[in-house]
Design a protein that fits this description.
Length: 464
């Protein structure tokens, strides 16, 4: 994740302030140095870094912390506010009819991002269409078509036409029923004149409501020149930063935003169409600083629950609290969790569990957890309807059969059964709860002081 290093190093210098109520100049110097080091190594422009560190320094020393605030919280709040200011607001994207033009160099992720954005708009209830005008890269048409099929959105392209401007014009006519048109363009290795001429012509025909620059997070300071040129030719309203899952950089994109006086619209966090997030400055910085991002998390949970429900009309999650918790319910829960995306991304969004907590887990902890979930799924696929509805019928001989059928071992089958009965017991405690009890329970789960989700993950008592 972008500037990942910042969260870790900043937390360790902030931890040194534990117990202090006042800040010395050297405390502030040390924190500011950490921030500078992380931002510079993430390719953030030097002048931006200097501006940010000056503001943090003067505010931390001059502002009076509100009564009862520790020195640590005082600095953390200032760093948070200044970082939110640095990344700026997200690009305005009204949920209505519009045409979006995508620009960027070859391989920056435009085609992938076009399908991702279309998927995102479709989840917001709009009807998007992607128009592929890249006649330069041979595989672009097939790639775009496949991704749009996966995103279940309309697609227009024409592999037999080598005139991108004509494709754009025809594409808009052919998809006139769509609400949101996303026009993908060709990239080149560098900013050659013909790329600029071509995109200007396409822009003339498409007349977009907004043009977005797609930038690879690893781009570094090269982003500055690119941003400047695209801004001069078509005008850039927003930036999509891609491949944030694969780099600790991302600072170049911030420079581009600054250069074009624009803002960040979306973040790309993986190769599938669902790996897109609307950029939310406060949530983004909270996550970076290890404070969690509840908004993104609740959006993911809601989407996953909805999808699980769409596939299974008869299922209402509330039923679990009323009746029995079967293995089928457990499987649905696991499906919903899978739909939320890779576990480490999800964990990052939980306050008190992201950042620092994740750093303390062994590197492969998430792989182990995900691997276990996959094995549990295979086991459940090998069970009969009767066994899924009533796991108590599973005796030793059935355990042997299921282990063989699923290609796992008896121990893992037993673990699954134990896990299920533990969850059944926990859910049993919810039954008959009043609203007040429920709130107390939620509070306990969210509280970072122990006994919360963090303990469940680390202590091995939790579901997965
Ligand atoms: N890990 C990861 N890979 C990504 C992401 N976005 C795009 N990619 C990958 O980056 C590569 C290039 O993406 P494309 O969408 O083909 O890039 P493009 O800008 O359309 O390329 P041209 O058509 O050549 O200009 C592909 O392998 C994508 O799968 C992302 O957010 N994360």
């Amino acid at each position: 994740m972008v500037l990942d290093d910042l969260g870790t190093s900043l937390r360790s210098s902030l931890d040194k302030l534990q117990g202090k109520t006042t800040l010395s100049e050297s405390d502030v110097e040390e924190i500011v140095k950490e921030i500078q080091r992380s931002l510079l190594s993430a390719d953030v422009d030097v002048s931006l870094v200097m501006e940010l560190s000056d503001s943090i320094k003067s505010r931390a020393l001059e502002e009076e912390p509100p009564g009862g605030t520790t020195a640590r919280d005082h600095v953390l709040r200032i760093v948070y506010e200044e970082m939110v200011e640095l990344v700026g607001d997200s690009t305005e994207l009204p949920l209505e009819n519009q045409t979006i033009l995508l620009a960027g160099l070859q391989g920056s992720g435009k085609t992938t991002s076009a399908a991702k954005m279309a998927w995102w708009f479709s989840k917001k209830g709009l009807r998007p269409a992607v128009i592929q005008t890249d006649t330069f890269r041979p595989g672009a048409y097939d790639q775009a078509k496949q991704m749009c099929e996966r995103a279940e959105v309309e697609f227009y392209g024409n592999p037999d036409n080598d005139d991108p401007v004509d494709i754009a014009r025809t594409g808009l006519e052919e998809t006139e029923d769509a609400d949101v048109h996303i026009v993908d363009t060709a990239g080149r290795h560098a900013l050659e004149d013909d790329l600029i001429d071509e995109i200007e012509e396409i822009e003339g025909v498409v007349d977009p409501d907004r043009s977005l620059l797609v930038l690879d997070a690893a781009i570094g300071q090269g982003a500055k020149e690119q941003a400047r040129q695209f801004e001069a030719s078509i005008g850039i309203e927003g930036v999509m930063i891609t491949k944030l899952d694969g780099t600790a950089k991302g600072g170049g994109a911030l420079t581009a935003v600054n250069e074009t006086d624009s803002s960040i619209a979306f973040l790309g966090t993986g190769e599938t169409v669902q790996d897109i997030e609307r950029f939310e400055p406060s949530g983004f910085i909270s996550r970076l600083l290890g404070m969690g991002d509840l908004k993104q998390l609740s959006e993911r949970v809601e989407r996953a629950m909805q999808e699980t429900q769409d596939e299974d009309d008869d299922w209402d999650p509330e039923d679990m609290l009323k009746g029995e918790f079967t293995l089928k319910d457990m499987k649905r829960q696991m499906d919903a969790m899978n739909k939320m995306g890779p576990l480490d991304q999800v964990m990052d969004m939980i306050p008190g569990l992201g950042g620092g907590m994740m750093d303390e887990l062994p590197d492969d902890a998430m792989d182990v957890t995900q691997d276990r979930m996959r094995r549990f799924e295979r086991i459940m696929d090998s069970m009969t309807e009767e066994e899924l509805e009533n796991p108590r019928v599973v005796g030793q001989s059935r355990v042997e059969r299921i282990a063989r059928g699923s290609g796992t071992d008896e121990e893992t089958v037993q673990q699954l059964l134990e896990q299920h009965s533990m969850m059944e017991e926990t859910i049993g405690q919810f039954q008959g709860m009043g609203e007040g009890d429920m709130q107390r329970m939620m509070k306990k789960m969210g509280g970072g002081e122990g006994g919360g989700l963090g303990d469940m993950m680390g202590g091995g008592k939790g579901p997965f």
